[in-house]
Amino acid sequence: MGFHSRWISMIMSCVTSFIYSIRIDGDLQGRITPTSGLRQRDPLFPDLFLLCAESLSSLIHKSAEMGTLRGLQVCKRSPHITHLFFVDDSLLFCNATTADCDEVQRLLMVYERATDARKGRNPSYARRSILAAQPIIPQEMRWQIGNGKKVCIWKDKWTPFPSTYRVVSPQILLHEDTTVDTLINFDHASWRADLVRELFLNFEAEKILSIPLSTRMPLDKLVWAATPNGTFTVKSAYWIAMEMKEAKQEGTSDVCDQCGQSSETTSHVLLFCDFSRLYVGSSTTSLAQFMAIAWSIWRNRNGIRHGEQPKKKENLILEASRFISEFQAIQDPQAIQDPPIQSVCCSRTSWLPPVLSVYKANVDGAVFKNLSSAGMGVLIRDYKGQVVAALSQCLFAPLGPLKVEAKAMEAVVIFARDVGIQNIIFEGDSLQVYNCLHGSSKAPPAIANALNGILFHLQSFCSFNFSHIRREGNKPAHIIAQHAKLVDDFVAWVEETPSFLETVITCDVLDSI
């Protein structure tokens, strides 16, 4: 730092020769000589700390002036912040680039040599917590498919199976490093269904085809798999850490308990193990059969580890079949509904026309479970209730209700833009999609790309708004969505009313008067 040797000698004599006394009942007692040098809370400590910290601050400022370290800006015209120093902590800001990180490392090494300090000798509790959580993050991160170019089919976690999020079908035809974009038809923003069904087991192919793709084809994105909306929370990470800790304390072996030969991986246990591959690995295995057999294998494995006798293969198959039969006997399909979403709007039960010079587009989605496909219906009307344009489109993918509603909303935005409408209200009966578009709830990863595509295409309109209507008030859109079952690809009507909608549209107009 350039201080004279005499001044340094005087300071060091203060650091190494001081003695403490303790005042007890008003009298000084004892002569305490510290052996570890100057400590925190000593009267001389703040001054010496500022002198040493100033040298590091000067190094950082010089690097910033030379342009080798940029720092952080809170807005465009604000100054760059490179560091904040506190009494017991220091914060350094830089860009997330290799060059900036190398420069920070260089500055700290220079400071270390000059002051004989040591980086990270006694890291804070927060830093130790971050380091301890590092193994948890990769375990619960999975890919949200955009264009599929970053995600490896066989190596990465991207499928909608919460157990592993990895592909369990045996690798065939394609190379092990093939990426997911190979399975996508970019011209139609859809999956190459024939190829998907050829590569994967039936139940897995249907799940992959149920992943909605956006026409915008955004980049693939990593999301947090431990929460429904894909956002990291400390609470979810805590429970994962506790599970990992308990599993580690059990000290279980990695050897498969069924055959006792290979490592116990998911693909080995369910596909390649001699004990289970004849039953689980068949291409004709349904999703229900696969899940029931896998559950039986898992129970058998846990029983073996707790000292029970292993079950025969035949008994496991019978147990799985009995479980499926019992489940189907008590299952009420009407009882399975989307979780309730808190309403943020006043939903109506009847259709209302828009004001003059504004159009209203009603939209709905339909699921054709027996055909493994879905339908989308769009109806655009003016302030008189007259049909301006309509669309009925079939999606040859086994999408669920929420996914097809999101895809339908994306389809109506693109269709209205192509028709040439500038001022429009988009109205649907999916409250969850409505809330996500209004920002009152976060979009689940399953529909996030479709909603981002909607927001992107909205830039084409002069004005737009979203409205929610109850299902009984959205009958024309529902009927035209059901009509998609009879359509090979799509059918559009421009300035023409579909004949099968004339009656219900007339009723809408009369009810609005």
CATH class of the domain at 359-512: Alpha Beta
CATH architecture of the domain at 359-512: 2-Layer Sandwich
Helix content: 40-55%
Q: Looking at this structure, what is the CATH superfamily of the domain at 359-512? A: Ribonuclease H-like superfamily/Ribonuclease H
Structural class: alpha+beta
Main pleated-sheet profile: 6 strands, mixed
Radius of gyration: 32 Å
Number of helices: 17
CATH fold name of the domain at 359-512, please?
Nucleotidyltransferase, domain 5
Average pLDDT level: 80
Total strands: the figure is: 14
Q: Spans with pLDDT under 50 lasting ≥5 residues?
A: 280-284, 332-344
Distance between the termini: 85 Å
Shape by Cα distribution: extended
Tell me the strand percentage band. 5-15%
The strand order across the widest sheet is 13-12-9-10-11-14
